[in-house]
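--- STAGE predict ---
source: upstream dedup step, 1 unique chain passed
mode: sequence only
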Amino acid sequence: MKTTKEKIEYLRQMRARLTAGGGEKRIAKQHESGKLTARERLALLFDPDTFQEMYLFAQHRATRFGLAGQELPADGVVTGVGAVDGRQVFVASQDFTVSGGSVGETHANKICQVQEMALKSGSPLVIFNDSGGARIQEGIDALSGYGRIFYRNVLVSGVVPQIAIIAGPCAGGAAYSPALMDFIIMVKGTGKLFITGPQVIKEVTGEVVTPEELGGAYAQEAHSGNVHLVAENDQHAIQLCQKLLGFLPSNNLEDPPEYGNGEVVFGEDPVLDAIIPDNPRDSYDIKEVIGRLVDEGDFMEIQEQFAPNAVIGFGRINGQSVGIVANQPAVLAGALDINASDKIARFVRFCNAFNIPLITFVDVPGFLPGVEQEYGGIIRHGAKMLFAYSAATVPKITLILRKAYGGGYLAMCAKDLGADRVAAWPTGEVAVMGAAGAVNIIYGNEIKNAADPEAVRAKFIQEYEAEFANPYVGAARNLIDDIIEPKDTRRYLSLALESLRAKRDVRPQKKHGLIPL
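--- STAGE serialize ---
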């Protein structure tokens, strides 16, 4: 019979073996490929000495196809809980050095258990994806494992924030778990995300594409919009994750963490008075406006390369987290298209689920015209924006900077969609359409029959602009609460946010609305 001392020593040896991953050679190969190991990633993510591992001793039960009697340390995934800036976060980190991080029954069970723990405790969930995919030797048990992970992704959705970090391969069915989470951070070069790989595509369609072109960071951010943030390496990905968590509450019953001493800083900024060009056809960078309004100019943009005609992201005003949505006049004149509509709608839904006030900056000529947009379903996609803003119950503040035309004006959270505060700069223009288009429709016959059509057109345009190309008509109808000098914008936003802290919004009782997906 072993003594207590011997039993403790055996435990130490076993723990050392199970925490060693796939061994020195595989760890060295992991480093050579530019990747950290599963445990190294967790050491960087969590505050020192706060990580508590769970289910270290879990093992597969496969008895065939080469797995019989084979020990897979931690079954290829490290799970547990720790603190990030003092706040509890649950984590699963796939270990590519152990059987390629393949997902089997027990591997999936471990992830499901931390998903459930995150749900029960109201704590954010972070998953590092670095896996060769389903463990072929376990067949349907591996597929069942993926299904159980997906199901819990949905249960957790809207309750606690979910962040996926793509730090290695993530292909096939595995890609759907990140897709069901709130944010995807992807590492350049090493991260790969796709459903069918280049070889399968070549066999089926004849198309030739590299893994990077198909599922690399740029492709998945700029083209598909699946990825929200791109990192240079594992270390940078973890920094982005930590920063993102700092803007978010731990769960849907809490407010986001606040920073600073509680002082409300107004701060006039005369530079804003000159930021809108006198020529209405000239563009400007909306990010410069945002950077001058948020605390310390710190704006964390989300999906920067996808649908750049719309800008979304997080900032703080007087230490309070806010979600920012804006048109970008420097791209497509700020017009809303299919991708921009989806981008904005999804972000608005996230902010609403997690009690983050929304600030919307409007300079929109309308929805992008074109056959491709119409055939692609711009009506359905634009309706997502209308639905998301209308359904949102968090504080909603809208600022009209310049153009606010047609359906685009409404879709960017007009008063009629439940905006709590709507202000405009003196440069604001609220109308069904631009002056030139409106005049051609209203006075088409007069212009056509005039002795000098261009002079008559110019006269009508001038009259239309004088009457409609300003925010005063909207203010007269109480659809715009105030017209402010641009330099006073931070003051306006600060006071509005403070006044809306205790906002309550009563909605009809129902399971859920039916967003036009």
